[in-house]
Design brief:
The complex is a heterodimer of chains A (about 110) and B (about 120).
Chain A lengths: L8 E4 L5 E6 L11 E6 L6 E4 L13 E6 L2 E6 L8 E8 L5 E3 L3 E5 L1
Chain B lengths: L2 E5 L2 E3 L5 E8 L8 E6 L5 E7 L6 E3 L7 E6 L4 E6 L8 E8 L8 E4 L3 E5 L2
Parallel strand pairs in B: 2-11
Antiparallel strand pairs in B: 1-3, 3-8, 4-5, 4-9, 5-6, 7-8, 9-10, 9-11
The chains are: A mainly beta (about 110), B mainly beta (about 120).
């Protein structure tokens, strides 16, 4: 159960777009469309922002979008805002009926 | 509104046991799968375990398999995590989380505030 690989950090100016990759294997990300993304500001519990690769829960701004190609999922934040500064984690269901999180990415707004 | 409240955290010596509880309210507990997720200080999220809505299926991360047991009491709307043979690397904030839709196990859209477990001699 190795963690999914995410870049440690990404940054952008307000209004720009940033993309976070989440690379797994054919036993997790590439196996099933059960990839979710969570936003975690420091000192708070995580919040679900994308599920089933690309679906936004009610209340999540449409500047957050998700996609997947092969063993790599991606989260794009368009029109970056100061309030988007947080850690972001992907997670995937696996062939073993377990779950695995990504290593986490810190998004900074310059 | 949905509420999840963890309790039972604290400081424990290596090799000892601890049981976490997660009291829930605001939804039909017996219809939803539940997870435990942990986060070591300054580190990322780590999935720990899942229990299906009726307790039929339970799955664990390799790092805790054989030492931790997830269970639930549907009559009292409470989730548990029994942690045995604790190690220093189990030190973390432990979150309970509810799945997004009934009768499934995917996606965690409600989280508790977390309970800190510190394993130290």
């Amino acid at each position: 159960q190795s963690a999914l690989t995410q870049p440690p950090s990404v940054s952008g100016s307000p209004g720009q777009s940033v993309t976070i990759s989440c690379t797994g294997t054919s036993r997790d990300v590439g196996f099933y469309n059960r990839v979710s993304w969570y936003q975690q500001p420091p000192g708070t519990a995580p919040k679900l922002i994308i599920y089933e690769v690309s679906i936004r829960p009610s209340g999540v701004p449409d500047r957050f979008s998700g996609s997947k190609s092969g063993n790599t999922a991606s989260l794009t934040i368009s029109g970056l805002q100061a309030e988007d500064e947080a850690y972001y984690y992907c997670t995937s269901f696996t062939k073993s009926s377990t779950f695995v999180f990504g290593t986490g990415t810190k998004v900074s707004v310059l | 509104q949905v509420q999840l409240v963890e309790s039972g955290g604290g400081v424990v010596q290596p090799g000892r046991s601890l049981r976490l509880s997660c009291a829930t309210s605001g939804f039909i507990f017996s219809n939803y799968g539940m997870h435990w997720v942990r986060q070591a200080p300054g580190r990322g999220l780590e999935w720990v375990a899942i229990i299906w809505y009726d307790g039929t299926y339970k799955y664990y991360a390799d790092s805790v398999k054989g030492r931790f047991t997830i269970s639930r009491d549907n009559s009292n709307n409470t989730l548990f995590l029994q942690m045995n043979d604790l190690r220093a690397e189990d030190t973390a904030v432990y979150y309970c989380a509810r799945v997004r839709t009934p009768y499934s196990g995917y996606d965690f859209n409600y989280w508790g505030q977390g309970a800190l477990v510190t394993v130290s001699s």
